[in-house]
Amino acid sequence: MTGLLGASLPRQDGPAKVTGTARYAADHFGPDMLYGVLVPAPVPAGRLHAIDADAARDVPGVTHVLTHAQIPKLGAPPVPPASSVRVPMQDDEIQYEGEPIAVVLAETLEAAEHAATLVQAEIEPAPSTPHPRGDRAGAEAPRESGYLSAPADAERGEVEQAAANAPVHHEATYVQPSRHHNPMEPSATFAQWEDGTLTMVDATQWAYGVRMVMCALFEIAPERVRVRSPHTGGGFGCKGLVWPHQIIAAAAARITGRPVRIALSRAQMYSTVAYQPQMVQTVSLAASRDGRLAAIDHESINVTSASDDFVEYATLASQTTYAAAAIRVRQRVQRANVNLGTAMRAPGEGCGLWALGSAINELASQLQIDPIELRVANHADVHPFTGQPWSSKKLYECYEQGARAFGWRRRPSQPERDGQWLVGQGMADCAMGTFRFPSSAHVRLRADGRAVIQSGTQDIGTGIVTILTQIVCDALRLEPGLVSCEIGDTDLPEAGPTFGSSSTMGVGAAVMAAAQDALAKLRERSGEDLSQAPGAGALSAAMSSAGIEELIGVGSFAPHDSPYAMGTFGAIFVEIGVDPELGIVRLRRAVGRYSAGRIMNPRTARAQILGGIVWGWGKATMEASHQDERRGRWLSKNLAGVALPVNADIPSDIDIAFIDEIDEHASPIGGKGIGELGATGVDAAVADAIFHATGRRIRELPITPDKLVQLVDPS
Ligand code: MOS
């Protein structure tokens, strides 16, 4: 079927998911399988002297209680894809509350869970560094590590001088708290060794990354590790790398000679995998009186663990968004005895735009310039830091079309009242870097005109199976019912990670190349003219005239250095209401316009962006994970203590559209990524709308009622 690219094909994996036939990692059983339950360290720092596991071993069904004494010395894994240089359960040191100190294995989950509560650990506590409190205390330059993917400090032009010469300045510090990913599916993994070969079924965003880590830890060849990930129930970044439970499951399966499954509880998701660490960002802007930016100076400090310096590159926003003559950025970390943070949906620019977008909006109000006009005056026609041209960018159209749809230019200078609500409106930029990972795929043509897509990518709920099906249907003119898709297995052609909004572009391009390769091979072997997309009838006729049962098209996406800078862009407009007595903030409506390359499927694309805007609303007004400083642990380790947007928080009036665009520099399919773009900018737009409604600037997220109830004059 031609024309299927860009059509709203329904989710191909939808029926399997809503009927419960889709199998996730924790649904996987093996004969003779043991259930593993991790025993978390109760203190944030200390030394483990002894473990008394007698009571745990007495529980019927318990087969093993393993500690660091039983786990052999493992090899050093690459970081990333391993999350940490610190391999779990290798010594007696405790560096964070929740660090696994033992694993209980049993014939039933109930026995393992009960026995894990009976394990007694004798620990000598050590002084610990608590999670910082939203200030600069202890900030230092990050150490050299796999996480330092770009220089921590960078400068273009002369920031000091440009700032000294500029007549207008704005400087402020913006704080966002640590927050957890909270995917629907808690992390889970199944590990089995047979004849020296490890098979895992894992909830992961990067099956090949898991394989890489296991090869290094167990010092075995890639052919000896197979990782399957048939479905991953959301990740948002917390399943992007390899965390302790995956390593412990593989080690425990090797020691016991039996398959082991570890499924984390919701509580363990808080301290055994990751979160987005708190960031304290200071932005200094210097500008001319008509709003042209002379200098941007941006420092971001994020919390990290004792073992690793994870750097969240929030300052990327200041390197990519506005055409300032001089730009300086600094990344710093604050080490603490907490579990390690990681990327979370809309890292980089998504984090930095909270600070930079807010600062721009504050500068606009200081100069009494419309926030869109200020942005237009500072539009980055080329990449501001490298000077490279953009592969494509239609941000002007986003401003124009968004403003028109929202009615921005009718925004009243004074806030309006609607019953008890003070109504305010705000806008901000959206932006996300474009990450391109090598990927490969096969398209197998069958004699009956069916096609099978094969790639070792994974679905984390975003709709990749639907997009890949559309690409093959379009290339071969097949009905969707004739195309099936096999993914989530390192026995399939290698594909990159499903993070950084990268899969449609990378895997999609590989699949399109594989379909074209299959067609070219068939044309050559059958002698038929298949120059037009042929359809099932012509395909099977050509197959049978050439006497072919099955033909394998091979394709890959191998991004090379490009002369172009790449990114995705957008503009978000929100209208909010503030109850001046109670401080409650409600989202009333939103408009988003996006420049993100070719949109493969408007239905799944809209779902991604809508989810992103909801995610942004949660970040702006609800979500925070607090630490109990005395105990060095997350105060609430379940969803009862973390506020998240629910349907009642989200109005139906959310207007999302994409600017018509094809970016052939980014990928041969013309697309870029949209999994994260929608989540960016919402926080800054909301903060500005609250300012519009109340006259108060809130620079610390989330903007909860306690921050407004004292501020708003109820008169
Ligand atoms: Mo994401 S933080 O790219 O899973």
How would you describe what is shown here?
The chain is an alpha+beta fold. It contains 17 helices and 28 strands. Helix content is 26%, strand content 25%. A 7-stranded mixed beta sheet has the order 3-5-1-13-10-11-12, with helices on both faces. A 5-stranded mixed beta sheet has the order 7-17-16-15-8, with helices on both faces. Bound molecules: dioxothiomolybdenum(VI) ion.
The largest sheet, given as strand count, sense and whether it forms a barrel, is: 7 strands, mixed
Number of strands: 28
Poorly predicted sequence stretches spanning 5 or more consecutive residues:
none
Q: List each distinct ligand once.
A: dioxothiomolybdenum(VI) ion
**N-C termini distance:** 63 Å
- Helix-strand category: alpha+beta
Rg to the nearest angstrom?
26 Å
Strand content: 15-25%
Name the shape in a single word: globular
Number of helical elements: 17
The average pLDDT is: 96
- How are the strands of the largest sheet arranged? 3-5-1-13-10-11-12
Helix content: 25-40%
Explain briefly what this protein structure is.
This protein is of the alpha+beta class and 715 residues long.
Question: Would you spell out the secondary-structure blueprint of this structure?
Answer:
Blueprint: H1 14-18, E1 34-40, E2 46-52, H2 54-57, E3 62-67, E4 93-94, E5 100-106, H3 109-118, E6 120-125, E7 153-156, H4 159-165, E8 168-176, E9 179-180, E10 188-194, E11 197-202, H5 207-218, E12 225-228, H6 244-256, E13 260-263, H7 268-271, E14 275-276, E15 279-287, E16 293-304, H8 316-320, E17 326-335, H9 349-367, H10 371-377, H11 395-406, E18 416-418, E19 421-433, E20 439-446, E21 451-454, H12 464-476, E22 483-486, H13 503-526, H14 535-545, E23 550-557, E24 567-578, E25 585-595, H15 602-621, E26 627-628, E27 633-634, E28 654-658, H16 682-694, H17 705-709
Parallel strand pairs: 1-13, 11-12, 16-17, 21-22, 25-28
Antiparallel strand pairs: 1-5, 2-4, 2-6, 3-5, 7-17, 8-15, 9-14, 10-11, 10-13, 15-16, 18-19, 19-24, 20-21, 20-23, 24-25, 26-27
Helix pairs in contact: 9-16, 12-13, 15-16
Bound molecules: dioxothiomolybdenum(VI) ion (MOS).
Dioxothiomolybdenum(VI) ion binds next to loops.
